[in-house]
Amino acid sequence: MAVALVVLTACSGSGEEDGKDRNDDPVGWSTCNTLFGAERVDALQEAMGQGTLRTLNASESLDELTSSWVRLAESWEPGRDLHFASNPCTLGTDGTGNRFRSDVSWSFGSLADIKAQGIWETAGKDVYVLRRDSGLHITAVFPCKIKGSHQAQEAQFPLEVETAVANVPGFDTGFLGELTVRLARTVAKKLPCTNDPKIPDAL
Question: What phi and psi values does residue 185 have, to the nearest 5 degrees?
Answer without folding.
Answer: -65, -40
